[in-house]
Batch of 4 targets.
Target 1
Amino acid sequence: MDTTHPGGPRVYSVTSSASGPAQLGIRNATDGGLIAERPLPLALGSWAVAVAPDRSVYVGSYNATPGAMGRLFRYTPADDTVTELGIPVSTETFVWTVAVSPDGSAVYGGTSPNGRLFRHDTATGVTTDLGSPVPGEQFVRDLAIGPDGTVYAGVGAQSMKIAVLDPDGRVKRVIDPPVQGSGYAYDLDITGHHLLTRFVPSDGTTLMGVYDLRTGRWRTVVDGVGSLTVGGGVRGHLVHVFQHGELVAYDLKTGKITRLGFGDYGGGAARTLGWVGSTLVGTGSTGRIWHYDRKSGQGRLLDGTLTGQPVSIRSMGLGPDGRVYAGGFFTGGLAAYDPASGESEFWPNVGQSEGIVTHKGKLYLGVYPGARIYAFEAGVPRLLLDLSDQEQDRPFAMVSAGDWLAFGTVPKSGTVGGALGLLNPATGEKIVKRNLIPGQSIIGLEYREGILYGTTSAFGGISTPQGDAAHVFAYDLATHRLLWQTAPVEGDLALGSIIFDDAGRLWGLSPDALFEMDPATGRSLRTVKHQTYPWSTVTQVWLDTHIELGGDGMLYGKVQGKTYRIDRATMAFTLIARPISILLKGADGHMYLSRMENFSTYRLC
């Protein structure tokens, strides 16, 4: 936020777009009115926006398109132009954070997947890769710059350490976190002689550490701080943050917390931006601006004025009503498409659904983060289970298995060891078996006659695979034990979607192979390589395939962005369409495909 702009205080934010470009929104901080929206070429979205002393606005972006990198942009209010400043680090796909030095001479940024720090010289336009401040970490998640130009870089997803660097990028020391475990040093701010840091350990808790820069020690840790900034709401010695969803004032001198009774910030996560007079201004994940007046003690949520953008489809599933349901990526949301009428319905206040399935006549969602399982009834998600405390995050695999709703998960960043989860919604009984296949994530599930069949990925929340191949397994729901496990494709570090055909054979589709198995023994019957895959260089592969059995007896598969018809007899692939992200067989027997934000229908003739 720029509180001193001659045209009035301004809020700068980025609206993500499924197929791009993302839009930089410029709004009046006082009334929320939209001043302008400017495209950010080749960017799909951003978590990183900072205002420089000269009022230039710097934006770090991400781009989910394969081979595309994170970029740096500058918006100049004086001439209302956006300039792309290039790819700061050639290996990095995501710029998570940007921060400007107090004199405006440099812009620093933090990236993933290799945890790099960069410095952009605003006078010369030269960008320098400063390397990894904590070698081996995947993320530089947030930055803070001290009054003397000292750079503080919070990293993850394993150590949660904070690197302290000279302005030229030389690491002076590394601050260990005040909490144990893996996770992120997520948000940093300098307030006087205090370094404030929000930590997000892999157990799902959220904490704010208060570090005294004069003594070099952590003073205290405040539980439940969930806002996206920890210093934007500073006034004097009071820091305004959200604790357990409510705005509170934390006194840096006394440690006292005063609850302020305001929590209507628009949903998602709250971000405090700064003060305009006696009014604290902030936003929520939906982009709407909120105000809290410290004099009246009242808060209000302003109307949304940003232009809505299409959301990428993250998941698809068949509903009990015959509709095709789709979950949105990043911003979440849930949509349903009725093949009979052609009409659609949308529910915005649903998290990012990684899995969607119908079980005993009801729709269930597996939502990120925390591997949360919801029942979705009458347009309302109802939480049934949360696996944050077991370090789980992404329930990609979901299947109806008799009385059980079964799901498989990928663990949180910085951890390994996914889980097989079983939930009986009728009784509330639940069984969670972590590390069923040691170190590996469970990404595909199928059910037949009391047996649950699953596939794994050797990748969890770190870039190092656990083992030299992914597995298929069979799990007996009566005895709750593994019947067999095998690695059907040598060297494949992730398998994917599996399905039974009408002859009772189990078929699986990995990023580079199609395989047929005997479900009684786990013995591989046939395997064919359909294309190549760079297993020796990949750092993370979860679910990348979808396979269905068509009414014509053919298999239909999506893999590496392409959809194929597959002849079971010859195992030959015939290309249907590209690029495609998800494939689903509808209740009417037609195949439904997603391409970024779009549905397509493939009718079997």
Target 2
Amino acid sequence: MCGLVGVFTPRGRTAMAADVDSMLKVMRHRGPDGSGQWRSPDGRYHCGFTRLAIVDLSTGDQPILAADGRRVLVGNGEIYNYLELRQHPACRDYPWRTQGDMEPVLPLADAFGSDFVDHLNGMYGLALYDGASHALTLVRDRLGIKPLYWTRLDDGTVVFASEVKGLFASGLVVPEVEEAGVAAYLAHNWVPAPATLWRGVRKLAPGHMLTIDADGTIAERCYWRPHPAATVPGDFDQAVEEMTALLDDSVRLQLRADVPLGALLSGGLDSGLVVALAARRLDRPLNTYTVRFEGAAYDETPLAAQVARRYGTHHQVFTLTMAEVADHLPMLAWYCDEPLADASLLPNQMISQVLGHEVRVVLNGTGGDELFAGYGRYFQLPVEARYLELPRALRRGAIEPLMRWVSPMQAWRLSRGEKFVTDGGGYLHDHCTLFPPPILDLIGCGLPRPPPAQAAVFAAYGGDSQSAALAADLSTYLPEDLLLLLDRSTMAASVEGRVPFLDHRLVEAALAVPAGIRTRGGRQKALERAMAARLLPADVLEAPKRGFASPAAMWMRGELGNLARAILTSETALRRGWWTRQGIDRLAAAPGRHAHRLYALLMLELTIRLHGEQRHQAPPSLGLRDLAA
């Protein structure tokens, strides 16, 4: 788990001198254990690496040069099956220089060209340079667990980095806001790949590979997308056995580390399954961590304690106070680079800060909901189903027009129900967005609304509607929200977050499971509950899904709400023209309904100020009070 940067200048152009030292320094949190650089003899390729040492502590430094000197590799993340790859026929006689997980990429690239990526199991952002042909290949892992950003300058030079702030630190890229990115953020709560908030800055989409040849020609291809495995489980019991075996093998691979390792343990199925399978494979007690924080609607620690006792883990419970929320948010916005409306970022980052004193690797259950249908949006809401029983002419011609006069938001909620059948991707989007058309009108936002990112994936999937919905979330919400949050919150504390549910073999197998098996009896995560039946306590199996949410409403009823309002109604913010003073006042007057919307707008504003205007090169020490003054 590390950070990588680089600059590639095509032949025939003057080599661009990037400040690689500053690029690495601004991402030092991603790799405090060392750094390295490599520059081609002609100066047209210069890459750098900052290391968080997890595997092969003594010889795993990067960049890695191939034995014949032709290729140079920098890679962020982990290739979990590296031991198996070292025994592959293409690698067996390779003169290894390291004992680490990244070096197998070099002989695999010699043997298979760009198809080397098909052999990798892991999370990664890779930059592979071919000195003989002067070509660069950038690769992002299948599920988008690790980030990779790039931009092309006017002369064709390509600059890349693991974080956007690394591009800005190069001295070659000026941060400018792209208004289309703002519209995308308001529509989705995040900016869908390949776009970002920043003009000219692109993020490589999950499962994509970018190649730049010697004359600067860029070609991008998708080498993997969520799809069902070729074989389909014959019945429920077979599905339980196959899915459990795949998850267990994923846990086996992801326990590989040469540093202290632990697992986040909530009261839910996902983290409970990961802990159960991991604890059974270790010859020592697994370190597990549960968090409770002030203002939460429930306390999951008793359920987590049952799992910890069952598996004899070394269990710790942390209580996080939210008294200093106003002091933490600017720092979080700096670490994120991109605005993220998910208010659970703050508690997750605070958890990671605590874990950073205990472990270097932490397993968690991210991805279980997207594989086994754990969200309510994968099912038609009962109130929507009842409403759709009315004649369409009555609904569209009378009820909804009348409701638009009484409550535009309620009219919109009624109208979206029909999309469950006619526009599954749009239905997903409508059940996630914080800023549907009635709310945009409320705040006075006139930006054009982009099409839902989920819709294109859903339409292209071609399978049953539930599996298409899972694939849509796996391609959009998961990498753009949950995995971005995981990467930034853990890396800010120099901790590697691992996600066993997102082994691509398990993803493909889960998508091959028919909906009638996956959610037997119409129950969310029915299959996963059966997988956990022999592994977890009954109380955990039957507990309702709650998720990990922040007490945003409580925050916004207190000082944070006043500070958010002051910042969002400042002359600086209003000058952008994306909302009005009256609009923000309307949100602030009802924090119970609009707390997450205020938070989302605040994080957008902070991101623009810290990176686009003030251009901080280190985590800011100022708090919201300073920005509101």
Target 3
Amino acid sequence: MSTTSTPLKDTGVGKKAAGPVEWLDDRIGLAGLVRKNIRKVFPDHWSFLLGEIALWSFVVLLLTGTFLTFWFQPSMAEVPYDGSYDPLRGLEMSQAYASTLNISFDIRGGLLVRQIHHWAAALFMAAIIAHMLRVFFTGAYRKPRELNWLIGIGLFAIGLIEGFAGYSLPDDLLSGTGLRFVDGLIRSIPVVGTYIEFFVFGGEFPGELIIARLYMAHIFLLPGLLLGLIAAHMVLLVYHKHTQWPGPGRTEKNVVGYPMLPVYAAKAGGFFFVVFGFTTLMAATLQINPIWAYGPYNPSEVTAGSQPDWYMGWVEGAVRIMPNWEFTIGPQTISLNVFIPAVLLMGILFTVLAIWPFFESWVTGDKKEHHLLQRPRNAPTRTAFGVAGMTFYGVCWIAGGNDIIALKFNLDIFTITWMARVLVFVGPVIAFIVTRRICISLQRKDNDAILHGYETGIIVRSAEGSYAEAHAPLPPEKAFALTARPRVPELTAPVSEDENGVANPDGRKARLRAWAKRFFYAHDVDKPTRFEVEDAAHHFHDDVYPPHDFPDDFSGVSETGVPKQH
């Protein structure tokens, strides 16, 4: 007995649906676009999940934020609190703070959703920063992805503003202290600072409009910008195709991985529930932002030990370690002690991030397209700059909690502050030197493994009585990955004049570029040549324990006798 199935397009439902679908396709041409990209291939590596964590945490933010908007009241009008939290009952507070308390104590599931929202915001920023670091250290921003790098910087900047706006909305004493910090930041802008402050706050701080304005920016303007940038980011990702790690069969002209449907879509969809579940678990077990412990905002009070969310803590730290530099010109007081570490420093940060791909391309002269990633050790100078930047950020971040550190460890706060002032300059330099030397050492280690194989842990005694450790050649796929990198470019002196003795009009710029290129590449260790690899292969056959005597799945043993993995 046999049965035959009727194709969907030939069924009654299929024929009825075909008309509208065909009409729509004739006008917008989606069928061709879908057919072209439905089998789009995506590589598989754990580091690529960092961007997905940012994407799915943003989806969680949209879902939980929609729930919270049903009950939040973005008003600074004073009302007596009559909710279920007894310690604050009868106290005058803003409607924004009262509604946040009601969400926390009187709306079923409100506190859980609030905490999911806050944890998702922290996870969103953490994932963006980790994703950007992955892109930076692997050179994934190189041509043709410079525009996508700039979009990522835009997402990072808007995410910072969106996070600040979000944790300012409850109008509790902690968020009000943060608003006071931003008020001082705005005022520090020379000449126009006070005018901008009056424009933002609708008068002198705190005014009566800032919560409503932040609310509209938080739920409408900034999410719209984020959605637009995320969409552009994803479109360019598909258009340029995904980067991949070097390996057998992987070139600059192909992608080895899984198709969009059904494999990658199923994995990505499942990962969304993993992110949502993990965020919910944190929200259910780890308390964050207990606004009822702080009380309503009062401009005359400051919360003891107040700290901003972690991704803004480095700005706080930069302000704390800045000397008290300010001077007066006529009626204007120029507060460099706030303007330099807060306004100017953030501007420098985003400017450096934005121009880095173009600066590196100019220095190296590399104009080719790159779809294969670089191991961080194979770009020692870039990796060293990245670690130096992380060190600078870390010192500022620690300085942002100098009062808490002094209290918990019984240390002198002035000593901590002065140590941070020194380390913020010395630390990045030390980190740069150490990191570059580590990368160069790892390059030499890779070359040694390519030429001499890996240590097997097997000690062999020769006929003469001497002892030696047997080495075995790397597996072909491992050796391929270690050698799949470009050679160090030749470093030549710039041409100062032509054959007629005429000076090069761009001589100064050429010398600067040659110096920068030498600084970038001079210490790199080049990979072995083909002749060196072939010569090394002959030595394995003369070894005291020939490699063909090892089992196929053997990878050596450690000092404790435990089998190792490549």
Target 4
Amino acid sequence: MVVAIQRMLVLGGALLGAASASWPVVAAPAQPALPVAGLLLLLFLLLLLALAYALKLKFDLKRALQPKPDMQGFYSLHDDISGFPNKYALQRQLDLILKSAPEQQFALILLKIEQFEQINQLLGHSNSNLILAQIAQRINDQLASESKILTFEYRQQQPVRVCHLGSVDFAIWLDIGHQPARAEFLAKQLQQSVPQPMLVHGCAIDYKLGVGIALYPDHSTELNELLERAYLALQHYQWQRGASSLFSQDMINYTTEKLALMAELRQAIDDQQLVLFVQPQMNMKSRQVLAAEVLIRWRHPKKGLLAPEAFLALAEEMGVIYPLSQWVLEQAIQTIASLTEQQLVSRIAVNISSKELLHDELVDALEVLFDKYQVNPQLLMLEVSERALLADPPRAMAMMQRLHRLGVELALDDFGTGFSSLAFLRKLPVQYVKVDCSFISELHKTEAHMAITGAIIDMARNLGLGVIAEGVEGAEVEDKLLRMGCQRGQGFWYSQPFELSGFPAWLRQWQHRHPG
């Protein structure tokens, strides 16, 4: 500041000198070249100018040092897709909470959007990211009245209570007091209320929420370890539907058991411990047997007879699902040949997964088997789920077209539970749709299931497709299906599954009792 004033004084002196040099010389009484009052005024003005300059410098310096809005800081605490607080934000909040209330009991509720990769493949990253953000918002909206949940911040006076851990995983921190059951109760509420279908480009997008719960401090006092426990509980929940979503120490042993089961499955294939069962499909009016679906089982030497839910997912994880499926297909085609020799006519239906459907050698392998056993391809029905088609829609559609040209009958399995799209369905070369048993088994109990089943049957008939009702377990259900226009059914009302080797004898006896 002193330097600035000195500069101003020098500048002022120079200006005065230049001005005095240009003034005309006039004879006058002797007096000072510049009155003292004028000099003082000029000095005062120069001082004011220097002071203003100094104040401006100070203001500019202060403004430069002020913190600016830090968007980078925002994204360090928030997920860049959903905009919700991330794991780091959760850790910061917990550090504060647990210091102030170390004896309190909490629950970490982990939520995972199941099979989201299929949505991603179907709609692309930009659309799937939008859906992901919408699901996160739906979860948060359901928590608006839950005051016992950790609140990260407020947006437009609405609490933000969901943590986005990344990918399709979310977390909620709940104060449970002395009631651990509150966590499972809340989780089930979210599972029921959040997954409402979203309509995107004419396609109804369905999804489910997987749940895993870990308790503080019972299961751990560290966030990372609590998350590991919650993930383990979620895997257990997915592996055994209907199981508890709350972590227990037994789940650690269960994971070890699962790894052992994976090793045993490889040996089971080599040792021929796998066996095929069969369940007939009927014309519900005439009682004529139209087809029979083969169902795989595992005769485990220690655990007994295992249903496919216990090991098929393992087979996919291990990469042995294709050779396993080839074995099933050969057994089915060999059975068709045996039935033909005995002058017994019945189609055999086989389920195939997305990995099988996308395998380039599937059609070639079927052609070899048809030629080997001299079987008409029309006597084989392949059942493909909606979800299997969406693993890679273009390749799946191309493979379905190849199978159709081969002459194989095609059915869309579990219809009504996946990504139902009328436009997509019309392009598929399928002859039948199978209505999922979850609708059929409750058909006589709720009007909603009856309305949905009726709509599916009407839509299929309008498209010229046959309908197979899965899970028919009583006369009342059968009667309602017939009145809706569905002619074909499968379920315990006709027969429980039995070994495929006994199907020819069973079919001969059935045809004798029901000559049709």
